[in-house]
Amino acid sequence: MLCVVGDLVEDVVVRPTAAHRPDTDNPAVIRRRRGGSAANVAEAAAVAGGRVRFVGRVGDDPLGERLVADLAAAGVDVRVQRGGRTGSIVVVVEPGEGRTMYPDRGAAVELGPIDGSWADGVTWLHLPAYSLCTEPAGSSSIAFVDAVRGRARSRLSVDVSSTAVVDAYGPGRFTELLARLAPDVVFATAAEAARLTRGLPCTLVVKDGPRPVAIHAPDGAIAEVAVPPVASIVDPTGAGDAFAAGFLVATMGGAAAPEAVAAGNALAARVLRVVGAQLPPAPALE
Fold first, then answer.
1. Residue 21: CB partners within 8 Å, gap ≥ 6?
2. Cβ distance 85 to 106 under 8 Å?
3. Is domain 2-18+28-272 annotated with CATH 1.20.85.10?
4. What pLDDT is stored for residue 286 in this prediction?
5. 48: CB partners within 8 A, 6+ apart
6. Strand runs labelled E in the chain
7. Exposure b/e, 174-196, CB count within 10 A at least 16 = b
8. What is the pLDDT of residues 47-77, one digit of tens each?
9. C-alpha 53, offset from chain centre
10. Which residues of 211-249 are buried (b: 16+ CB within 10 A; e: fewer)?
């Protein structure tokens, strides 16, 4: 079973429909969606056919209840602590397919010590950097990694997630943390990979937009996998999370890294065509 530890929040996706004008009204299309990098990975992994558990913290409020119910309805085994206020992220989708995020993670960063029974059956643990670089969530997540690995042979992946998060934490400090955790796989964009201050003895999967995905093997070998073009990109939110989910489900099913990258690309493409990070239904077979 795949277990993902981290954020379950509400995404407020803002798509301006005209050029920005300061100090006055600006027309936009606004949609509210379930979000959070970890929750996105968990949902996409479930859609891809994986057995997946989500571990995190939401507020003791109606929004938290709704987000938990929605994630569970997607086929995810949801285990959460409750307390405080559920977080939200405002995502402004900009012209040219870029986006800017304004996170208020709320209860997610207050994740406390994780119930040891939530590790039962876990064979692969995945954590975004968001789960590692704030407190007390960071200490709780790291302790959970140790608990999972101490109970049975399991694998670990980390998504570097955000240049801003790594810069605030310290690139050298973050690289040392990765070395201490010894993940099997690290996901990063090209900009995020550049923050790592030295090589790591793991598989590093580097995404670079429409350019080929580079797979850096522990022995230093590099393989590239082309990214099929995606027509009519609507919103890039959650594409990296879907990519990680597709890669992990394929890898857990026995796929080699190039095939797992192809599975990740296919799942990411589906997210790129919709507003928000939630996957649309799979296209019907003709």
1. none
2. yes
3. no
4. 32
5. 245, 246, 249, 250, 263, 267
6. 2-5, 9-16, 28-35, 52-58, 77-82, 86-93, 99-106, 124-128, 155-159, 185-189, 203-208, 211-216, 222-225
7. bbebbeebebbbbbbbeebbebb
8. 999 999 999 999 999 999 999 999 999 999 9
9. 14
10. eebbbbeeeeeeeebebeebeeeebbbbbbbbbbbbbbb
Dihedral sign, Cα of residue 164, residue 177, residue 9, residue 107: negative
Name every residue whose Cβ is closer than 8 Å to that of residue 20 and which is 6 or more positions away in sequence: 26
Residue 189 · residue 203 · CB < 8 Å: no
Strand 2-5 versus strand 124-128 pairing type: parallel
Which residue ranges make up each domain of the chain?
Answer: 2-18+28-272
Q: Which residue has the tokens 């990214």?
A: 227
* pLDDT given at position 133: 95
pLDDT beneath 50, residues of the chain: 283-286
* Strand-by-strand arrangement of the 86-93 sheet: 28-35, 9-16, 86-93, 99-106
pLDDT digits (tens, 9 = 90+) for 159-168: 999 999 999 9
Question: Tokens 């670079």 belong to which residue?
Answer: 208
The first and second tokens of residue 74, run together, are 């997607």
Q: How far apart are CA 79 and CA 237, in angstroms?
A: 24
Cβ neighbours of 128 (radius 10 Å): 28
Residue 149 in contact with residue 123, Cβ under 8 Å? Answer: no
Task: Give me the helix-helix angle, 239-252 and 37-47, nearest 10°.
Answer: 50
